[in-house]
Amino acid sequence: MKQITGLCLLIAALPLFGDGSLRVRFVRGAEKGPITVRLSMQGKETVKTIPAGSSEMVFDRLASGRYDLLVAGDEPLKRLATFAHVTSGETLANVELPSGVVLGRLTLGGAPFQTELTLTHWDEDWSTTLTTGKDGAWDSVVWHRGDFEVAIGRGRDRMPVGKITIPKGIAPRADFDVPDRQVTGRVTTPDGAPARGVALAFEMRGETRRVIRRTTDDDGAFLYFGVPAGSHTLRVVSAAGHLQPDPVDITLRANDSLREVAILLKRGVRRTVRIVDHHDEPSAGATLLCVSGGEIRSSATTDAKGVAAFDTPLRDDSTLYVLPREGSLAIRALDASESGGALRIRVPPPDSSIDLVAKRTDGTAMAEVGFLMRFNGETIPPVVVREMQQHQRIRLRTDEQGLARLLNVPTGFYEFWPVRTDDEIAAILETEDILEPPISLNARAGANRVTVRFARRY
Predict the structure, then answer these.
(1) Which of 33, 40, 203, 287 could disulfide-link to 74, CB 3.0 to 4.6 Å?
(2) What angle (nearest 5°) sits at the alpha carbon of residue 325, between those of residues 321 and 326?
């Protein structure tokens, strides 16, 4: 989520040329203070502020279209988001400012906690920052309720610690207790030197799943704060010049307060690869993933000439996955006994799409059904699928309409196993050579569609 703070500060206006105007009229109610509006469309934005007591502002010379408005007052939770459709001439937008106060108290393991607190709205594109008192208390007039992500601290030390709900009511309470648990440690190189700038991802599995990224400091140290009890996973996601080690599984009990972790990086074999598309033109900006043992060991991005360097394990065979940003997929097996010479990989055209539709036998859609995928006999590890979902337009988990969609993929033979949990994925990976996947198709150029029907469990 993009974070927007300090909305009452003046932001340089960007012209949005056109023959329309937007008159924003506020129904103030009990609100008497100044009001700031950030108006934006397609990356262009302008900001205006009206003083206390005033109830209108006008934005001129606007092009026709939908504009997002982020309205802010003079207290941290005087925030709300809305929109307006502007056409030629003047468009009127009435904005009602709700009333109500929210009272909260932040604690650390049950004790008052004085710190900087950032609340980021779960559904809307804004956040706000406040400071708790010595007793951990905070309060604000509130314009918009709902769920917020909670983060404590400031700058690079700010740490997401969970979710809070501000309920309806005139003066609701929104207390939050930060778990008094820490995971700390140090990353070192094979010769024992501190590894600075190593990117880590800590997957916390509390009431909600959260993945928090940190970077090691000059001493190779890292700290995760406010960790809930349960089983978690710590991964190295980027370590320039070194291989990414196996993930570290961490289990914290209710009475645990600190877990120290030592991570030792390994050296690999540096290899160079040139990626070209199906026209033999350089494929710039393609993501490369070197995978061994089901985990990503190194990653890289091709330059303007389609060239990138990456590291492979010294003694273990591995597989290189190529994910061009425009879509498609190429897979190349790498033998540990190879000399380490330069590679050239040609990526097939992304001329196919696949819709996977999950329905019950009564025709209703099934959401949150995931799929493990095999392409031309090669099972795609879940860690690679996550990167494909991030860098390309694919979604291998069904939405509320029961639809999972792979856009811009190559033609070929695809097989799928429907899955719900990580344990199911692990069980399939152990038996995939024995059990045939229930879904298979020869994807041809153009649109392909498969509907899977599930019987209800009673």
Answers:
(1) 33
(2) 115
Q: Same topology for domains 182-264 and 269-346, yes or no?
A: yes
Cα angle, residue 82 at apex, residues 76 and 84 outer, rounded to 5°: 145
Strands 258-264 and 182-188: parallel
Give the right CATH number for 269-346 from 1.10.1200.10, 3.40.50.720, 2.60.40.10, 3.30.830.10. 2.60.40.10
Which superfamily does 352-454 belong to? Answer: Immunoglobulins (2.60.40.10)
Q: Which of 101, 109, 149 is nearest to 125 (CA)?
A: 149
Which residues are within 8 A (CB) of 28 and not within 5 positions of it... i.e. 6 or more apart?
55, 97
CATH no., domain 20-96: 2.60.40.10
Residue 281 to residues 148, 348, 411, Cα–Cα distance (Å): 46, 12, 20
CB 20 within 8 A of CB 87: yes
DSSP string for residues in 364-378 = -B--S-EEEEEETTE
Q: What residues pair up with 46 in beta bridges, in sequence order? A: 39
The dotted CATH code for 182-264 is: 2.60.40.1120
Please give the chain's pLDDT, 458 residues, in tens. 333 333 333 334 444 578 899 999 999 988 999 999 999 998 888 999 999 989 999 999 999 999 999 999 999 999 999 999 999 999 999 999 988 999 999 999 999 999 999 999 988 889 999 999 999 999 999 999 999 999 998 776 788 888 899 998 889 999 999 999 999 999 999 999 999 999 999 998 766 678 889 999 999 999 998 898 999 999 999 898 899 999 999 999 989 999 999 999 999 999 999 999 999 999 999 999 999 998 999 999 999 999 999 999 988 999 999 999 999 999 999 998 876 678 999 999 999 999 999 999 888 999 999 999 999 999 999 999 989 998 888 899 999 999 999 999 999 999 999 998 878 888 888 887 777 899 999 999 999 999 999 876 54
Beta bridge partners of 251: 231
Tokens of 30: 């009990």
425 SS3 class:
helix
DSSP 264-286: E-B--EEEEEEEE-TTS-B-TT-
Q: Where are the domains of the chain?
A: 20-96, 182-264, 269-346, 352-454
| Helix (H) or strand (E) segment spanning residue 148 | strand 146-152
Cα–Cα distances (Å) from 439 to 171, 372, 384, 452, in that order, read 53, 10, 20, 8
Nearest-angstrom CA–CA distance, 300 and 307: 10
